[in-house]
Amino acid sequence: MKIGFIGLGIMGKPMASHLIKEGFETYLLDLNKDAVNELTDLGGYPCESNKEIAEKADVIITMLPSAAHVSHVLFAKDGIAKNGKPNTIIIDMSSVSPEEAIEISTKLKAYDMYSLDAPVSGGEPMAIEGKLAIMAGGAEEHFNKVRPLFEAMGENIVYVGDNGAGATVKLANQIIVNVNIAALSEAVVLASKSGVDLNKMFEAIRGGLAGSAVMDAKMPKIIERDFVPGGRIDINFKDLNNVLSSASKVGVPLPITSQVREIFRSEVVHNNADKDHSFILDYFEKLANHETPQGGKN
């Protein structure tokens, strides 16, 4: 298989690097030429356009900020659909809504192409380690064909159903992750303003029922006030908007998620969109008029 990879950002770059290291012939495209050059040094092949990727690759992976970006890459005049080969499999590993994933699949069938919506969870650390969770929707035969690619990038790989199912599971994932970060932030501010060393708090509760993968990933960043993004506030805000839109369509009230979405909205309008989503801590700090100390101890 010849692989095209479009979107070499925080997540895409390490994901593509694992494909290259595993020996897959990988063609690369991104506006960030430094990222392309870095992966070219590992053995990837740089491309200059979506058209070039389409002409060279049998399987094309997109890892882009939004459905609008994915749609442009696929359906613009110089895009994948109009310039690719029949039977090309498109794997969109971006976070899009189920409705958008189904629409992409339907439109690609008119070009004799197929799609999988296969979003990921684990953030930049798991992308770097090649241990992402991958949830895939689409035809099972296509999933089985490209599974070796998933195995190069991830560790927990699950086929979850037809087109749109992968995107739906990712929305459920985003509810759990971002509500957890909000609860963690609220608890941290309470403990810190009460004079507790956050390192001791973390040590005391991480092994109990309150412990989680979210806590293990985000508590060290909060303690060190390290908000370099592994998952950006604006991207997670977009995901929460997709969650609420999709939930409305199927008649599912999401009162907790709705409130957390507004916390993210507040941070976006306060110009914190490009920070790690653990920085919603800032919202709770302002409510309490207390900033948690770097290092965790007052």
Secondary structure topology:
Elements: E1 2-6, H1 12-21, E2 25-29, H2 33-42, E3 45-46, H3 50-56, E4 59-62, H4 67-75, H5 80-83, E5 89-92, H6 98-109, E6 114-117, E7 120-121, H7 123-129, E8 132-137, H8 140-153, E9 154-161, H9 165-193, H10 198-205, H11 213-224, H12 233-250, H13 255-269, H14 281-288
Parallel strand pairs: 1-2, 1-4, 2-3, 4-5, 5-6, 8-9
Antiparallel strand pairs: 7-8
Give the % helix: 40-55%
Strand tally is 9
Decide which structural class fits the backbone.
Answer: alpha/beta
Q: Which whole number gives the mean pLDDT?
A: 96
Proportion in β-strands: 5-15%
Looking at CATH, which topology of the largest domain would you report? Rossmann fold
Oligomeric state, counting identical vs distinct chains: single chain
For CATH, the homologous superfamily of the largest domain is named as NAD(P)-binding Rossmann-like Domain
Give the distance, in angstroms, between the N- and C-terminal Cα atoms: 55 Å
> What is the count of structural domains?
2
Strand order of the largest sheet: 3-2-1-4-5-6
Given as residue ranges, the uncertain stretches (5+ residues, pLDDT < 50) are none
